[in-house]
């Protein structure tokens, strides 16, 4: 017999020879899936810098494990934008003509806040783009974004039926009274369902939950609607498809009740862009579908009070004069500092008719308007000059061009979101949640380009 040597005794558990290179999905999924909870807790947009910290750690860990980190195509444009934001801080102490004089230190809090948000969303872009299908599939990301549209619609309905609904959040309770009573801080940590405004005769609630402002609500509505359509189309469940159609039908009600003309224009841009893409792909049935949808919408406008609401809003353009005034101020400021801007926004001296008219408790919209607060384009030009504007527009414009051949439903929805953001920047500011959805749409296009079209 041949002697068999006994196996060597194990001295303990085997040492790991490989490092964990995976990126978990929970930082991205946690932001989107639990956003109503963050809003109720008073975290809201603050969740983005909070989640950015573990994302940075996980990205660094993956890089240390030998896994290369990818940068999105056109990232040099975004780097130029971030650099311009930093450099423009040098002009923070300047007081352009017709604006309220302040010290640079008084403006620093808002600037640091915006800078931290831009940095956090940059991390979100890199993290979402470096996730693999096994870690967070594009199909699931589309479902999460579609779910955010459902949240937007539910928040809109809440704003309609309970316009005065608000409460003190746990985070708000923890803050000293002198801090939580400041308008800027309150806008971040105090949840409310709607903004009460007098636009068409009498004060009416305009949906805002869970995005803080009616304009942000409308912006996100346009950015997210396409993802619900794609998610429903990719689902094998007839029940889910039916619920998605029902949600889209119901969404018309808060969309009209919001009195948000920018939202209505944005939806038109999205529909026309998607139709254009489908016609180019030879899918002419989209024309018939649009005609049917337009007919149904027209009947709804005639047969319900929604039509009266739309006509009343179009006949009452109270904000037109203020917007024109602020655009002129932004362009005047741009000519005064065309390269780097002024580092942030400024408040006007008085109103558009007199420097003696200012904001008061009885007339919050009479003066002291924010130059750069009426649209992302005007804020870019005023706060960060030509360099920052070119970097910002260059990044998203390059993405639309680079990924123009992505004809997958998810790719068309993502590019439609970016296209709508170009029209929205004329009257909406993008920070924070609209820009978050824009970078996630960019990450989706980027991953489609790398991994091949999926949905």
TrEMBL record:
Protein name stated in the entry: Uncharacterized protein
InterPro entries: WaaL-like
Keywords recorded for this protein, A-Z: Membrane, Transmembrane, Transmembrane helix
PANTHER family the record matches: LIPOPOLYSACCHARIDE BIOSYNTHESIS PROTEIN PA4999-RELATED (PTHR37422:SF13), TEICHURONIC ACID BIOSYNTHESIS PROTEIN TUAE (PTHR37422)
Chain segments annotated as transmembrane: 37-59, 71-91, 111-129, 141-165, 217-235, 242-257, 263-280, 287-306, 381-401, 434-450
